[in-house]
Amino acid sequence: MQRVLVMGSSGSGKSTFALRLAELTGLPFVSLDALYWQPGWQPSEPEPFRQRAAAAAHGPGWVMDGNYISSGAGELRRELADTVIWFDLPRLVCLTGIMKRIVTTYGVVRPEMAPGCPEQIDLEFIRYVWTYRQQQRPKLLEYFAALRPDQALICFNSRQQADRYLEGAKAASNATIH
Prior knowledge:
Elements: E1 3-8, H1 14-25, E2 29-31, H2 32-36, E3 37-38, E4 42-43, H3 46-57, E5 62-65, H4 74-80, E6 83-87, H5 91-105, H6 123-130, H7 132-135, H8 137-145, E7 152-156, H9 159-177
Parallel strand pairs: 1-5, 1-6, 2-5, 6-7
Antiparallel strand pairs: 3-4
C-alpha cells in the first residue's frame, strides 16, 4: 500500500481513519477538503483545484481522504491508487457522525480542513449527507467499476470493521519492526 484513496460519505469516519492509517504507514496524509476549500468556506475554482489534486496524486505515496470524483483529477487519482478504501455506512450513522462533530468541534478548524473553515451548522451539508446514498453512492459505484484487477477495493460497512482493519495493520507493522 503506497497510494490509498479513502472515500465515502461525510460523517462516516473516513478522515479519522485516513489520519490513523497515514500515521501507521508513515505515508503522507492528503485531505482533498483542505485542497478544495478556501477560507470562509469558499470553494476553489475548478482548474486550480484539479491542479492541486493532480500534484498531490503524483506524489510517491499518500493516504488521500475525500471523494471529488467529478473534479479534482478523479480519474488520475483512481489510476494512480493501488488501494481504495470505501466507507459504505448507513446514512443514520453518517448523519450522527456529523452531528457529533458539529457539537464537539463547532467553531474549530479540524486538522483535515483548510485554514479559515471552522466547523459550522450547514443545512445544505446535512441534506447532502442525508441524500448521499441515493445521490452520490451510485457515482462511487461507477467510479469503482473502473478499477483495475491489480487495485484493491476494501469496503467497510461499519466503523468497527475499520477499527479492526487498523488494529490488524498496527499488529502487522509491529511484527515487522521486531
